[in-house]
Structure formats: C-alpha cells, structure tokens
Amino acid sequence: MQFLLYSMCFLLLLVQVQTQNQNETLCDQYFLNITKAIAMGQMPTNVSPETILSSGKGLQDLGSYLICRDAADLHYIHLRMMSEGKPLHMGFCLPQYCEMSYLQKQNTPTKDLINNLTMFQYNKSLIDSASYQDPDLIYPSWSAGTYLTLVLLIVVVALNIIGSIFSIIAENKKQAYQDDLKTEIKRKAAQKINESHQEESSLKDSISQLYKRSELIQNEIMENQESAFMSGKGQFEEIKYKKYKEPSWERFALSFSFIHNYQKLFKINEPKGENAGFVIFNGIRSLSIFWVIYGHDQLIRGSNSFNLIDIPYKITEPGWLTLTPAAYFAVDTFFFVGGFLAAVLLLEKLTKLRSIKFSLVPAMWIHRFLRIWPTYAFCILVYWQLTVYWSDGPIWNEYIEYTSTCNTQWWKNLLFIDNMFSHDASGLNYCFGWGWYLSNDFQIFLITPILLIIYAKNRKIGLTIIISMLIGSIFSAYYIAYSHDFHLQMATPNAKPQPDYQDVFYFKPWIRISPYLIGILFGFFYCNYISGQNQKLVQVAQQIKDSVVIRTLFYVFGIGLTQTIIWIIVPLQKDMNAWPSQAQYFYQAFNRVFFVIGVGLCITPALLGCKNDPSRFILGHPFWQPIARISFCMYLTHFIVILFMTFSTTQLVYYQQSHILYFTLTDIVYTIIIGGLLSLAIEVPCMNLEKILFAPKKQEAAKLNGNQVESRNDL
Question: Which positions, given as ranges, span the membrane (predicted)?
Fold first, then answer.
C-alpha cells in the first residue's frame, strides 16, 4: 500500500515536470515565431489580436490590463526595470502557458535586449535590472499583524458607532435634565419674588412685573450654569444648583462619538481675546499642507509618468515647476509655526506659576507623545498591513514595495528615531518615509520646554542659548553641504546623484531646527508685547500698528524675502552648475532661515492686532479653520493617497503641468476627506481620553491654582 502511494506521488511529479517542460517548449516556440516575423518585417501569425492590442508598445506603456485579465487563455505580465534607482515599466499580455517560472529565466536576456534598443535610440544603456512579475501573485500573505490591525480597525469603527449612539441618548438625557432644572429655577425664582415686599405697585402691575422678572432671572441663571445672583436691590439670595455631570463610562463613550467630535472639529469659532490674531495660522497651515501635497504629487506622479525620459528637460521650465523643489519650505513653515505657538502657549502657562521647576518637563513630553503617537501608529499599521489588499493594477507591486519596508523599519517610526538611520544607498529604504517630519518635530520638542523654562527664569541666558543654537544650526548646514559637496536636490539634466543627501542633510534635526528657533524668537517678541511690562517693545509694536508705511515695509521685505528664496533658483533648473559650489552651500545654509523670517514679517501686523490687515483677512478667514484642525491627519494620509492613486492606475499619466495640477487638486480633496475621517475616528477621541484620564483631581487642582499668580511676569 505504501509502495502504491509513493508510485502515485512519483507519477504526479513526473506529469508536472513534463507539463512544465511542454509549457516552456510552447513558450520558446511562441517567442521564436515572433522574433522571426519581426526580423522579416511581417506580422506574427501566432499572436492573437488581444495580445497585440493589450501589450505595451514601448517603455512606460502598460498595455490594456483589464482586457488582458478578462481573456480566458491570456494573462497579464508586468516587466519591471530599474534605471538609476528609478522604476520603468512595460506590460505584456501573454498566453497562459508562458508561466512565471519560465519568464524569470529571461530577465537578463530581456535587460540586454532593451539596452541594445535604448543604445540605438538614446545612445546609452538605461536598464540596470529587469524582472517579470505577475500582478495577481504579488500580494503578501496575511500575517498576525494583518489580523490584529483588522481587529483594531473594527474596534475603532465600533467605538465610534457606539459613541455616536450614546451621544444621542446623552443629549436627550441632558435636555430632560435642563428642562426639569428650568422648571425648578422658575419656581424658586417666582417664590422668592412673591416673598418680597413690593408696596409701590398695584396688584395687576405687580403680577406683570413679577412674571417679567422671573423670566429675566431664569435667563440669567441658565446663562451662568455654576450659580446665579438675583438682580434687584439686594432682597434676593443666590440660587445654587448642581450642574449636570456625566458618569465616567458615559464620558468615555462620548469621547468616540462621531457626532460630538464632528461638531467640535468643524465648528467655526470667532477669535476673541489678546490671541485673536492667531487665526492667521489656520490659513498658513492649510496652504502649507496644500504645498506639500503639490510637491509630493510632482515627485511621485512625475517619476511614474509615461514620458519619464522627458522630465529632466521639462523641469528646466520656470513657473509652476519652480515651486516643486521649493515645497520643502512648507515644512519649514510648519516648524516656524510650531516654535512660535510652543513659546507663546508654554510661556503663558509658566509665567502664571509662582515657582517654575524642571520637574514639569516630563509631563509636557508625555502630553506631546500622547498628542501625536496614537494617530501616527494607527496610520502606520493600516498603511503597512491593510492598504496593500485594497486595490490592484499592473504596477500595484510598486505600492506593495513601498509598504514592505515597514517589515523591518516600523519600530524606528514608532520611537520617532527613523530620521537618525541610513535609508540604503538609494535613500528610499524607509517605512512611512514622510514621517521624518514628525520625528524631527518630536525631537525638537524634547528640548523646547527646557529652553523655555531657562528663558522664564533668566531671560538673557535663555536668549543666548537659543541664538547660539540658531547660529550652530546654520553653520552645521553649511559645513555638511560643503564637506559632502551637496548641491540643491533638483532633477535637472546634469544633476549629479546624491543618494545620501536626505540621510545626511535633509532629515536631520540639527538642520531643520533653525525655523523652529526663529519661531520661538518671534514668540518671545509677541509675549513681551502682550505682557505690557516691556515698554520699549510695546512702543515699537504700537508704531507698527499705527503706521501704514511701516506695515507696508513689513510686507515688502517679507514678501521680497520669501519670493527671492523661491525664485532665485531658476537658473539651476536649466544648469546645476549655473551657481558656483560655494553659493549653493550658502543657499542651503540660509534659505530656510530667510524664508521663515519673511513669513514672520508678513504676519507680524496681524499678530499685533491689526484687524484691517490683509494677512488677517486672507489667512484668518473662517474657511481655513476646519482644514487647519485636520492638517496633522492630512499630513499623515496625503502620501498614502498619492501612492494609492498613482499605483492603482491601469495607465501611466502623460507628464505635463495641467495634468499634475488636476491630480493635485483631486488628491487635496481626497486627503481632506480621509484626514477628516481619521481625525474624527482617532485623533479627537484620543485627545478627549487624555483629558479624562489626566484631568487633575480637586485636591491637585486646588494645589495647582495655589501655585499660580494673578499678574503676568515680565518675560
């Protein structure tokens, strides 16, 4: 019996080997007939019309993926080639008997054949490697991480649904409580009025007066939900009542309420108080994230376009394309805004304390970590473990290639240290590559509270340290650019390869901290103005507010600086050697510094309270508020949207500026929708939970209030 089983297994293996050999013979004969026909200038007779129509006719031509996939006896094969670290593509519709095991043996001959053709057409070999891939066989198998991420996604959706249901129930419950309270207050108010002695009015007038006063008292009580004092000549006492308070479990459920969070996230608030000018940061954040999306659209869609070979020559045209290499200034603007707000808001809290201690720093770190990490980690998990199964296409393997780097790199992102490691010789071996900004932001914030506490204790020492760090950042940028001979990162025809540019220069916090420090210095100026105790700064600020000429000069210099930094690189678009090396080193050291100083000059009048200021009108418009609130989640998701839309296509786009602008606008809309959903489902609930879990108890709150002073200290 055992001998019979072994015999059957051997016969099945023999049949399989014979079938494979037969398929290879058929495929050999298939390609041989095509080669002979092409050599004789004839149409191959063994090629079906579907194969001819559905196969690519040259580099970057994917053919007709959908038609080939629906054919019964054909299957789609993707030829992926690498040229100087960039992928090139071509699609083929082949008979089923041309299996992947056979095609993989043709990788090297295919590379040699294509290089012979490109040598003839372009006078150089373009292809470094070539490999055949079946788009239906590229999906990774489900792992434990995939199942856990799917469970997490289901739990998050369930919590949002349950929270939304509870919010409806809680709202009805609260409304019923307020109705009962309204009746009780009206009864008590009328009772107190009736008990008062009113000799001056007739009975009819007294009743009318009592009713009106009862309404006034009721409204006053309802407006102030802590306590209310009866208006009058001192004959009424204070009426106190308990404010409606949700149970802990109800507050937890409401934290995930989609309805409650939507009302909070997209509510338009009217700016009030001394910091009303901060509304301009809504416009700055929104326009900056749009600029980031535009730059990444140019990068990803441009490097995966039909006319890829034309791009180095198209990029020499000044105009919209000049804004592409300048898009990293949008990230510097984020750093500037972050530094400014950190300085103002943290100093505002510190100066209210009677004693400022460094023991406060860990709490600030924890708050910052909890503010960023949950949403960031959720995005990485979904991007890495789930999104690879959400689409297909002839080049979908490129998307899977991007996500596969997280298999070994994920922990670096979750610890905010991914920018400290090398990303391979190609500079592309990173998980969630755009997360370098969050790592820089978190690393810079680790020292921010320490710097601000030093400044609050001793202004001169704090300023000296911060200015020294700014000078050190500028010098380190120049030295690194000089020592590595780094030129500007632009895809001009004669641009030299710089695979280590991002690892050594672009991603490092000692390079990116300079805009953040300038934001802190602007924050110091603002705090000194608001405190009112530094009269010299108050007088300078008042002159800026009162003088149209001075405000105009601020705009002239501010706009002049930003636009000069952006457009001065136009000669380098055509020739990377248009500037001497020293000029490029200096530009890379000072460009982000001058750019954010220009931004700061433009927004200073609005920050000082000039309500008729143009930047206040444009950047402070209520339209920007909801977009600014979800800008963090938009940053997390925008690159996923771009990759998803690029690699799920069945045809590569022809690169021209009108197409890129169209796709940028489309990706902005998708990013707003997905970023908004992410913020509602994860970011805002986590912020709500943090308030519940870390809210100070009554004893701690009393102790904290006892450590505060009423007046501001001189900053």
Answer: 147-169, 276-294, 326-347, 368-386, 434-454, 461-481, 513-531, 552-570, 590-610, 630-654, 660-682
| C-alpha 162, offset from chain centre | 28
Show the 3-state SS of 97-130: CCCHHHHHHHHHHHHHHHHHHHHHHHCCCCCCEE
Q: Other CB atoms closer than 10 Å to residue 588's CB: what's the count?
A: 21
- Please choose, from the candidates 138, 139, 140, 135, the residue with its C-alpha nearest in 3D space to the C-alpha of residue 77: 135
Distance CA 592, CA 414 (A): 27
Note the pLDDT tens digit of each residue in 350-398.
Answer: 887 767 788 889 989 999 999 999 999 999 999 999 999 999 999 999 9
Question: Between the CA of residue 615 and those of 284, 375, 519, 524, 605, what are the distances in Å?
Answer: 10, 32, 18, 21, 8
* Structure-token pair, residue 447: 């020292």
Q: Which residue has the tokens 């000194």?
A: 528
Across 57-66, 294-303, 319-328, 585-594, least confident range: 319-328
- Which structure tokens are listed for 681? 């489902």
* Pairwise CA distance, residues 236 & 230, whole Å: 5
Dihedral sign computed on CA atoms, order 62, 66, 69, 74:
negative
- Both tokens of residue 317? 């045209």
574: burial class by Cβ within 10 Å (0-12, 13-18, 19+)?
middle
